[in-house]
Automatic annotation (TrEMBL):
It comes from Niastella soli. This is HEAT repeat domain-containing protein.
Amino acid sequence: MNSAPLKVLVFPILFICFSLHIRAQGLTPATQNLANKLAAGNVMAPGTWDSRYAKGKDLINRNQYVAYRALCDSADLSELILLLNHPNGVVKGYAGWALAERKYPACDSIFKVFLESEEKIHDAINTEKVDLSVEFYFGVYYSNWKDDITKEDTLFALGMIKKLDSIMLYLHRPTLLLGIALDHNNADPATYEQVRRWALENKNEKAIIELARYKKQEDIAILKQSGKTILQCAALFPDEQFWPCLEPYFSQQKTPELFNAVAAYKDQRSANTLASFYSQINSIKLVENLYEAIITNYCPYYNNLLEMIWTKDKAIEGKGATFLAKADPQKAATIFTKGLLNKKEFHYIYLKERYPGKGALYLMFDNISVYNKQQLAEVISSCLNEKGRVLSYFLDYIEANNVEGLGNVLLNKFNPGHMPVGDILRLIKIILSYKEEQLSQEVIKILKAYKQNRYWHNEEKNILDLLKTFNMDLD
């Protein structure tokens, strides 16, 4: 490293030391030895705050992890601060990470020095050198991923990242971390002017998108000139003035960004437009993208489209099923039943933000059990016979809700030689609880044949005890 960056590094660090009244006399031999090992490895291994990397196959990463953990455990604060001035950038980086783990209050000052030095080091992921400031940033960010994380650790990391992000936003040159700082900004009123500066002067795409999040009328002219980025802006700030800017994209290739932009308007016009898009797409992946845009921006105008997607593509998840059931439970029972009885492949949609309630099938079963109960057994039978269905999932529901009329279909699924013992016992219990003589005799017949199986002795006692509760045996 040349002398100019060195001066930039030395003076702030000395200031930090004096401000905390630390008098460092030098490094102990043990700390010096660890610094030498880290310098010899000369790479910042990702995740050295995470013990899983100690078990990795990569010898360099593992050795760096061991040396780093030893440094964290044995070096005192003054030694770590001295190591920030080490001639090797990797050692500086590890010292910075160790200070972040110690919840050092001046980590933002260290970050500023690394930024100004523009020093680059090797890491274990990239083929080219990366900024030391970037490695330090992520070390702070992930410092609350330690094995023994505490609430205090998390609060420190979140508070410090906010300070580091602020430094990035107020900097007068773009860096690799600016986009991350903008992602974290979340329309913070305190940083509005800086975000606007990046959007207006530098035409930074993420800054333009973040500017939309503030939803200020005075920014509309800037946002309208953002090209295709207007799609992401409108999704966050669905102002009427943006609609004409969206229309040229309606006839182009359909994308998740387009779906989200239109869905954000939540009116009959947007519902009709989305329905038009749906009629033009033939990819299940695009159907999933459209569905997610509808759920993210849900309004009652979108119920008809949710029904169309379910009826045509048999695609749904828990939140959509809930919306339909609440809007018109009787109608929902009819379309749920119709969809579940057809032979189309079921497409369960996985949203980025998972619905915390019951799964879509359970929700539909619940609805059908109230508003179309006479077909519930038929619906569950149909689902059970679909390829790839997990029997235990249905047994949970059948058992919890005492669903009747499933004796024959469950008997067809009863193959004790090829199922977990838990499912064996539950199937026996459910089928026998129907108290149908023919079904009971078939169960006994299957179990007698199963006695010849090599696993019978492992399960014999539990099966015989269960049969006794029904006053039955295998003799």
